[in-house]
TrEMBL record:
Database matches in PANTHER family: ALDEHYDE FERREDOXIN OXIDOREDUCTASE (PTHR30038), TUNGSTEN-CONTAINING GLYCERALDEHYDE-3-PHOSPHATE:FERREDOXIN OXIDOREDUCTASE (PTHR30038:SF7)
The protein, known as: Benzoyl-CoA reductase, putative
InterPro entries registered for this protein in UniProt: Ald_Fedxn_OxRdtase_dom2 (IPR013984), Ald_Fedxn_OxRdtase_dom3 (IPR013985), Ald_Fedxn_OxRdtase_N (IPR013983), Ald_Fedxn_OxRdtase_N_sf (IPR036503), OxRdtase_Ald_Fedxn_C (IPR001203), Tungsten_al_ferr_oxy-like_C (IPR036021), W-dependent_AOR (IPR051919)
Transmembrane helix in keyword set: no
GO molecular function, one term: metal ion binding
UniProt record similarity statement: Belongs to the AOR/FOR family.
Length: 656
């Protein structure tokens, strides 16, 4: 009997219509856990580095995590993996909701799509019944609309449906995959899904998932439950409200957005409005949010309520969460939050990433104001800020006029437009739009997370470490007093010594050696979460979370029957991380690519940045170009990876 996992992949050849249920090797779980870990392995084995995003050989893999469908609170993340049309690397956006649990209850750990369908289709899974169905009648329908139409068509109101909208059909590089109250948004998974002519995946499952040692598992979960209750009753002091508890940032619950609106950048990631949050704005935005949010909602088996059902005036109802409520308004310089609720609904139906897409629209506006784009490019565009953004969104999603150029994202659009447009591409890393953060002095931790992570998304810059030094010794002592999640007690002293100003302040503190250890820890937790299917708001993205490196091994062991300790779990996370790194090295990623935008910080320190990269690379066991050495790869049982890198000339023979 298989424990925690279903033990089967569902393989779909879209070109032939062949459907195959494939039993998996139990050793895969022991080496890579599940979720992202085993998906990376599948891509390494199946998709050569020469394959591009829209080639038939590109695989699109929907994966559950190892703890999905178990009683583990908040283990509800699906991971979607593919070669991205934007970055050209192996991407893995995550989505919450109920899809992963439903897929595992149907008896599958992954759905693997290969090749392309000649016609529009959707995949229907109902336990052992699996069909490729015609979706020609769904072409042109919205992502949310498609989900409802399929449920009615199947007469399965509880079916979980992941679908694309018009953006995915038109292969917009920021197209998302929408599902329930969540989406897999970053790096163009919706475009790859549309390229393969998959309109949706509908799944219903009613099978059981087994735990190896259920009593032991539930005893561990009791500790998690007790901690969640404790954190609710004792929010972390002296940090912003949305980070003081647990779960993803509680932006649908809290209305105070002073920190985000005054510290994040407006427009095309250019301007900080330091005096924006007035009493009048506080009152109007709070009123707008309270009117729009009809109820707070959760994902599968989650005790928190990070999302919301939005019903704004005559706008159709939809689900929303997190920073999306701010991205369009801030990018458009619109001070009325009502605008956010309206345009976010249309964007959700179109199926676009609400982090990248507003930046692309703001980029177009800035080019127009600079005279690089002309009245001809904007013919028929309304002159008001709100109307202009709606008009641009429609053009991008439909790939009409200038929207066809913008639909490839800022990096490619800037180079196609030319005439100085390249200078306005100042918020991309590895060809992908970043969160619009423009800060003062270089932050060494954020530099490493931003520059080196394979995730290339908002959560790559966040972890369990405080966002900045606490102003007083008393606040620091209070913070470290209750901090069992850290991997080593020395981390407490680093926080105690961390100052806002002076020798032990950024950019030179934490030191490069300290930064390497801190970032490695935060990155490790993200990798574990993404392998087991855990919401990072309950672990890697959250200050003082209920899941951490000390209780994860016990939960995974009880669920699977493995006898896994902390060192063993760290080794698996390291194996997955290095395999992913090597895959992207094969796709061309090198040290030269790991540079945040020039104006990301007002004060840059080039020599320190190079020292940070070199120190971090050495700590990871990588060479000076950011490629894992043979010694590191063999240590992790990845000798076959070293052989491949040497064969391709990426890693020199014996280089350590």
């Amino acid at each position: 009997m298989r424990y925690a996992e279903a033990g089967y992949y569902l393989e779909i050849d879209l070109a032939t219509g062949n459907i195959e249920r494939v039993a998996t090797d139990p050793k895969l779980m022991q080496l890579h856990l599940g979720g992202l870990g085993t998906s990376i392995k599948e891509h390494w084995d199946r998709v050569p580095p020469e394959v591009k995003a829209f080639d038939p050989e590109n695989h699109l893999i929907f994966s559950t995590g190892l703890l999905n469908a178990t009683p583990a609170f908040s283990a509800n993340r699906s991971v979607v993996t593919f070669v991205s049309p934007q970055s050209g690397t192996l991407a893995y956006p995550m989505m919450g909701g109920f899809f992963a649990a439903e897929l595992k209850y149907a008896g599958y750990d992954k759905v693997i799509f290969k090749n392309k369908s000649p016609n529009w289709v959707y995949l229907y899974i109902n336990n052992d019944k699996v069909e490729i169905r015609d979706a020609s009648h769904l072409q042109g329908r919205g992502a949310v609309e498609t989900q409802e139409l399929i449920r009615k068509e199947l007469n399965l109101p509880k079916a979980q449906v992941a679908a694309i909208g018009l953006a995915g059909e038109n292969r917009v590089f920021t197209a998302s995959i929408e599902q329930s109250r969540s989406s897999a948004s970053r790096l163009g998974g919706g475009a790859v899904m549309g390229d393969k002519k998959i309109k949706a995946i509908a799944v219903r499952g009613t099978k059981d998932i087994y735990l190896a040692r259920p009593e032991e598992f539930m005893e561990q979960m009791k500790g998690v439950t007790d901690y969640i209750k404790y954190r609710w009753a004792n929010p972390i002091k002296d940090v912003m409200t949305i980070l003081s508890g647990i779960g993803s940032p509680q932006e649908m619950l809290h209305t105070d957005e002073k920190w985000h609106t005054e510290n994040f950048a407006w427009g095309n990631a250019r301007t900080r409005r330091r005096d924006f949050w007035t009493e009048e704005i506080d009152e109007s935005w709070s009123k707008s949010q309270h009117a729009a949010v009809k109820r707070l909602i959760s994902c599968f088996n989650c005790p928190t309520h990070c999302g919301a059902l939005i019903s704004h005036k005559d706008t159709p109802r939809y689900m929303a969460k997190c920073f999306g409520k701010l991205t369009y308004a801030m990018a458009a310089y619109v001070d009325d939050l009502d605008f956010s609720w309206k345009i976010l609904q249309r964007a959700t139906e179109y199926g676009v990433d609400s982090f990248s897409t507003p930046q692309i629209l703001a980029f177009a506006v800035e080019l127009y104001e600079a005279g690089i784009l002309t009245d001809k490019d904007f013919a028929g565009c309304p002159s008001d800020k709100e109307g202009r953004f709606f008009w641009l969104l429609d053009r991008v999603v439909r790939r009409e006029g200038i929207g066809d150029v913008l639909a490839d994202g800022v990096y490619f659009a800037a180079r196609k437009i030319g005439n100085g447009a390249e200078a306005f591409d100042h918020n991309t890393i590895k060809k992908h739009e970043q969160l619009p953060v423009k800060l003062g002095t270089l932050d060494p931790l954020y530099f490493l997370m931003y520059a080196t992570n394979e995730k290339i998304s908002i959560t790559q810059m966040e972890g369990q470490w405080p966002q900045s030094a606490f102003p007083t010794p008393e606040q620091r002592e209070e913070f470290v007093r209750d901090w069992p999640q850290i991997p080593h007690d020395k981390f407490k002293q680093w926080v105690l010594d961390w100052e806002l100003r002076g020798e032990k302040a950024i950019p030179y503190y934490p030191t490069p050696d300290m930064c390497s250890e801190i970032v490695d820890w935060m990155e490790m937790m993200h990798n574990i979460d993404d392998a087991v299917g855990m919401c990072c708001g309950m672990s890697s993205f959250c200050l003082k979370p209920p899941y951490h490196i000390h209780n994860y091994p016990k939960l995974i062991s009880a669920a699977t029957g493995m006898d896994l300790d902390e060192d063993g779990l760290k080794e698996i996370a390291n194996r997955n991380r290095n395999l992913h790194r090597a895959y992207n090295n094969r796709k061309g990623i090198r040290r030269a690519d790991e540079k945040p935008p020039t104006d990301h910080w007002k004060k840059r320190f080039p020599e320190l940045e190079e020292e940070l990269l070199s120190t971090y690379y050495r700590y990871k066991g990588w060479n000076e170009d950011g490629i894992p050495t043979r010694e590191k790869l063999e240590e992790l049982g990845l000798g076959y990876v070293a052989n491949d890198l040497e064969k391709r000339g990426i890693l020199k023979n014996g280089e350590n």
